[in-house]
From TrEMBL:
PANTHER family, sorted: RIBOKINASE (PTHR10584:SF166), SUGAR KINASE (PTHR10584)
Keywords of this entry: Kinase, Transferase
Kinase keyword on record: yes
Protein's name according to its UniProt entry: Putative Ribokinase-like protein
GO molecular function, one term: kinase activity
Species per Swiss-Prot/TrEMBL record: Streptomyces viridochromogenes Tue57
InterPro entries (UniProt xref): PfkB_dom, Ribokinase-like
Residue stretches spanning the membrane: none
Superkingdom of origin organism: Bacteria
Domain (Carbohydrate kinase PfkB) ranges: 14-288
Cellular compartments per GO CC: cytosol
Length: 309
């Protein structure tokens, strides 16, 4: 399986545990501070590489030490970074994530170079050679640009998947509508489905996305697992019961597991199970790259661990 993960690349700085930010010049001791590659393209690339896919990542980052670190972390995970373009006038996107004891994490985020990516940056030949394109954060580059990239992929026989970045409250249907006819697998979270479609019911929102052209919608729901919505109906896929340390990167890990499963010819349900297993493995530590697992280990985890009730 040859995958191009295109779009949002972020360097995460994670601090754990953080119960409160000290006032003024105050300080507090923490247990761990880590930096990881992340984003709806970068984080997904990490887990896809672990699950045995050949991954090339494409996006825009800065020519700064933050970008150097991001490239180093991706390459250490086995991701081909030659198609990451380096900007000289815009910094690399980054987030500072204070992780609460229960695993929740507010975000301090710098958009950076991600929003500068455009058609002139796309490695069109490499895209045509891929078997799968995963586009993360199409709303940042515009629906028309995303549609052009995705339609090119489809014209060359490449399967496509899309994950959204913006929180649902900032989403609007016109931000993604033009791209949906070229999306085989849409992988948003529950909040995004409701926010981008304007619907109050999750299934109704997912069906609106299907009616606009998406092949299927696999909605992540945190501890409630995932909801698969296809023209044939809906299926609920439970999450696995684990002790959650940090939820950072769990959505990206689910996307990677789902994409890898579909690439292996598994059913959407079984692919979602692999996605839930990858997310559960990542959730047990700090950051998008937590865990030392491969496809066999993820499958073994899914076969031996209980789903959350």
């Amino acid at each position: 399986m040859k995958v191009v993960t295109m779009g949002v690349h972020v360097l995460d700085v994670l601090v754990r545990p953080v119960e409160a930010i000290p006032e003024g010049q105050g300080a507090t001791l923490v247990e761990d501070i880590r930096m990881t590659a992340a984003g709806t393209a970068g984080g997904t690339a990490l887990t896809l590489a672990r699950l045995g896919a050949a991954v090339r990542s494409a996006g825009a980052i800065g020519s700064d030490p933050t970008g150097d670190m991001l490239v180093q972390l991706l390459e250490a995970a086995g991701v081909d970074t030659r198609f990451l373009v380096r900007r000289t006038d815009t910094p690399t996107s980054a987030s500072v994530l204070p992780i609460r004891p229960g695993g929740d994490r507010p975000s301090l985020h710098l958009l950076g170079a991600n929003i500068t990516y455009g058609p002139d940056d796309v490695p069109w030949d490499a895209l045509a050679e891929a078997t799968h394109l995963h586009l993360g954060g199409p709303e940042l580059i515009g629906a028309d640009t995303a549609a052009r990239i995705l339609s090119y992929a489809k014209e060359h026989g490449v399967t496509t998947s899309v994950d959204l970045l913006a929180p649902g409250e900032l989403g609007a249907f016109e931000q993604i509508a033009a791209a949906l006819p070229y999306v085989d697998h849409l992988l948003p979270n529950e909040d995004q489905v409701l926010g981008f479609t304007g619907e109050k019911d999750l299934v109704a929102g997912a069906k609106k996305l299907l009616d606009a052209g998406a092949g299927l919608v696999a909605v992540t729901r945190g501890g409630d697992g995932a909801l698969l919505v296809t023209p044939r109906g809906t299926e609920r896929v439970p999450a696995f019961a684990v002790d959650v340390v940090d939820t950072t990167g769990c959505g990206d890990a689910f996307s990677a597991g789902f994409v890898r499963g579909m690439g292996l010819g598994r059913t959407p349900y079984d692919s979602a199970v692999l996605g839930c297993a990858a997310a559960a493995l990542v959730a047990q530590g700090l950051g998008s790259d937590h865990g030392d697992f491969d496809l066999a280990a993820a499958d073994a985890f899914a076969a031996t661990h209980k789903p959350r009730e």
